[in-house]
Amino acid sequence: MGTTNDTLDVTVIVPVKDDAALLPELLSGLKDFARVVVVDSSHDPATQRIAAEYGADVLVFAWDGQYPKKRNWALANAKITTNWILFLDADERVTPPFVGALRATLPTTTHAGFWLRYNTFFLGKELRHGVPQRKLALVQNGHGEYERIDEQHWSALDMEIHEHLIVRGTTAELAARLIHLDARSIHKYCVRHAEYASWEARRYLRLRATTQPRALTFRQRVKYAVLTWSGFPLAYFVLQYIVRLGFLDGRAGILFAMLKMGYFAQVQAKIAEARLSGFHSTTPSTGDSK
């Protein structure tokens, strides 16, 4: 990526799997960052070629079904020398205001991590309403990693999806937003969320079975407290579509809200299915979160 006095002291880590088509648009917008590392688990020559064209480093990752997954593995193996690390997915994009916010904030901040917000595009339309997407994805080098969950082949997800970034130090929120291009393909969206639901169901049952202390964030505690309530999927739809004014986003808004409702219903169904199959009684009671 080349280093100049104007370069942001940030390494961008981009975990990918069969995402070559998304990379040119993403990587072309990362010229202001000191280093970009593409962590590929698809072993796709196109991914490696495109990354090289844009000056990004490529690390090839092979997951064995257990800890660590892709992001934590990259933290341990990418030999990062910048002061900051930004995690981006292949369907996310930086914006000029976001880059400007990094320039203004990072050199003098006392915080060790930052929460980021996103403008979500669904079916080609920006969703201006509904529940906002927010996640902790910018961390000072050496001050954080994703929570460890010793899953046993719960799914084919080789990247941390619901695992939270645990930051040692204070955190704040950047006002400038990134872009999230959600559901360019509804088929892929549904397949991906089916995997998410399988993982989430097993995570829930593991937490219910363990006798160890639960190192959960406040948001996780709330989520797992209400996740199996029979009316929760419908309540989320009401929150997304009515309370948070998702109906103002037209057809895209109602379809997005319905798919979210369906996702939580799917999680509940998979929890019920796993209980019938005896998952909760055969899952080890140690090591669920470290």
What order do the helices and strands come in, and which of them pair?
Elements: E1 8-16, H1 23-27, E2 33-40, H2 45-53, E3 57-60, H3 70-77, E4 84-87, E5 92-93, H4 96-105, E6 113-122, E7 125-127, E8 133-140, E9 144-146, E10 165-167, E11 171-173, E12 178-182, H5 186-209, H6 218-226, H7 232-243, H8 250-277, H9 279-282
Parallel strand pairs: 1-2, 1-4, 2-3, 6-11, 6-12
Antiparallel strand pairs: 4-8, 5-12, 6-7, 6-8, 9-10
Helix pairs in contact: 5-8, 7-8
Tell me what you see in this structure.
The protein is of the alpha/beta class and 290 residues long. The protein folds into two domains: 8-182, Spore Coat Polysaccharide Biosynthesis Protein SpsA, Chain A (Alpha-Beta Complex); 186-282, no CATH class. It is 38% helix and 21% strand. It contains nine helices and twelve strands. Helix 1 links the parallel strand 1 and strand 2 (33-40). It is globular.
What labels describe this entry?
290 residues; alpha/beta; Spore Coat Polysaccharide Biosynthesis Protein SpsA, Chain A; 2 domains; ten-stranded mixed beta sheet; two-stranded antiparallel ribbon; 9 helices; 38% helix; 21% strand
How many domain modules? Answer: 2
Major β-sheet, in short? 10 strands, mixed
- Strand tally: 12
By CATH, the topology of the largest domain is: Spore Coat Polysaccharide Biosynthesis Protein SpsA, Chain A
Percent of residues in beta strands? Answer: 15-25%
Q: Average pLDDT, to the nearest integer?
A: 90
- What is the C-alpha radius of gyration, as a whole number of Å? 19 Å
Spans with pLDDT under 50 lasting ≥5 residues?
Answer: 280-290
Task: Note the overall shape.
Answer: globular
Q: What name goes with the CATH superfamily of the largest domain?
A: Spore Coat Polysaccharide Biosynthesis Protein SpsA, Chain A
Question: What would CATH call the architecture of the largest domain?
Answer: Alpha-Beta Complex
Give the SSE order as H and E letters.
EHEHEHEEHEEEEEEEHHHHH
Question: What's the end-to-end separation, in Å?
Answer: 35 Å
What is the chains' assembly state? Answer: single chain
Count of DSSP H/I helices: 9
CATH class of the largest domain: Alpha Beta
